[in-house]
């Protein structure tokens, strides 16, 4: 179990990521980033990412960290299966191979 506050985890992931990205943008002169209106899909992506981080930080308080990480890395498999059954998405050969590769390396890295 991890006794770190979820706010610290969220800050470490997004706050530091933002700082490094901002430094990169300033150093490379790519300052025109962010001057366009974000699409609705991008907004929803951000909302669901925030929900994911909140759920993950709550999970590591309730269950061992290794189990929380395994559940986090199972997300691509769960999304693929749900998309196949509920959204009639096709799973091509390349997608299946990459998904299997991801799951195999997730399992062996632990």
What does this structure look like?
This protein has five helices and no strands. The protein is mainly α and 110 residues long. Helix 2 (40-62) runs antiparallel to helix 3. It is globular, with a radius of gyration of 17 Å.
Helix content: over 70%
Largest sheet: none
SSE pattern: HHHHH
How much strand content do the residues show? under 5%
Please give the oligomerization state of what you see: single chain
Estimated structural class: mainly alpha
- Estimate the mean pLDDT confidence: 79
Which of globular, elongated, flat, extended, rod-shaped describes the shape?
Answer: globular
The total count of helices amounts to 5
Low-confidence stretches: none
Short structural summary:
The chain has 110 residues and is an all-alpha fold.
Strand and helix layout:
Elements: H1 6-28, H2 40-62, H3 65-73, H4 75-86, H5 93-109
Helix pairs in contact: 1-2, 2-3
Features:
mainly alpha; 5 helices
